[in-house]
Design a protein that fits this description.
With 94 residues, the protein is mostly beta strands. The chain has one domain (2-92): Immunoglobulin-like, CATH 2.60.40.2000. The chain has helices spanning 2-5, 87-92; strands at residues 12-15, 19-22, 25-31, 35-40, 43-58, 63-76.
């Protein structure tokens, strides 16, 4: 939490598409060998690939390190299903 209070900037470092280091991580929503969903100070980050393994996770100082083959990284809005129309079925039955 010290980093967030001190005004640390959100950074992402990808090394050879096989390791990703992220700071200003607030929480990890889900994790499996092919997809990681992370709440960061800049929004929700989704990382896709395969053979993911968490090398380091410390939510107290906002650090996350993942090893594996990284195919895609994207940010999404912080809105939940209720704010976006209830997900797929909410949009389908509008």
């Amino acid at each position: 939490m010290e980093n967030r209070e001190a005004g640390a900037k959100h950074t992402v470092v990808i090394e050879d598409r096989s390791r990703i280091k992220i700071n200003c991580v607030e929480d990890v929503e889900s994790f499996n060998e092919e997809k990681v969903v992370v709440y960061t100070s800049m929004g929700i980050m989704i990382i896709n690939g395969y053979n993911f393994k968490v090398s380091r996770l410390n939510v107290e100082d906002g650090q996350l390190v993942i090893d594996g083959e990284i195919d895609k990284l994207e940010y999404t809005e912080a809105a939940g299903p209720a704010e976006t129309g209830g997900g797929f079925f909410g949009r389908l039955f509008k």
